[in-house]
Amino acid sequence: MKLFGRPDEESREFGVRAGRVRDIGVRTAMLQFTFVTALTLVSALALALVYGLGGWLAIGGQLAAGDVVVLALLLTRLYAPLTALSNARVEIMSALVSFERVFEILDLKPLIQQKPDAVAIPPGNVSVEFDDVRFAYPSADKVSLASLEEVSTLDTRGGEEVLHGISFRVEPGQTVALVGSSGAGKSTIAQLLSRLYDVDSGAVRLGGTLPGSGLDVRDATFDSLRDTLGMVTQDGHLFHESIASNLRLARPDATEEDMWDAIRQAAWKP
Known about the structure:
Layout: H1 7-59, H2 65-84, H3 88-106, E1 128-136, H4 140-143, H5 146-149, E2 161-170, H6 186-193, E3 201-206, E4 215-216, H7 222-228, H8 243-247, H9 256-265
Antiparallel strand pairs: 1-2, 1-3, 3-4
């Protein structure tokens, strides 16, 4: 804010929002204090009534002294849970808000879905073919939620086309390097190949000995696509688990020897 030359305006805006939070907190605290105080007063008056009336009846021989003590204890046990209910409102409201956000995310339909009649990619080495591929990244309202992006509404504008009629073919065993400046579309091509996104037009095919004879990745099952393709991202990510758990992420049934073999193939040197 100092760099943008607006420290005073932002300070005033922060003061207004902080004042709202303060007012809500004070109002909530006063309501809770009033409820607890009223409940405690009623409990004390009821306890005094039990001891007073019960003591008078006990002196008159109409009630045993032990019964008066038992009634007082039962009354105490009754009001203790009622007092605890004063905090239940806050916990319930927090839980409802949390559930609402969780189910909002769970109900979001994935942009990429497997076709009901999807087929498996044949095992073995496969060729890669891009056939007149055109692609533009989808708008924000198709891939995310406003609550996750901390905005009131998501942008509905579609992205500009980033790939314009890309066509090439890579044969099995061939090594190909895509070279270009940042934003040229190298990562986008890799994401289309692994079907993190679907093409807008054209096709991405795997396998096939002749051009156009391979299987469109949109017609392949997710399991066979993951078994066929391996992708190493530019920035490595480790989950907050053990090294073994990270290595077993793609193959939970991998043995320790399998993991060491994967480490050796990654050119790790102890």
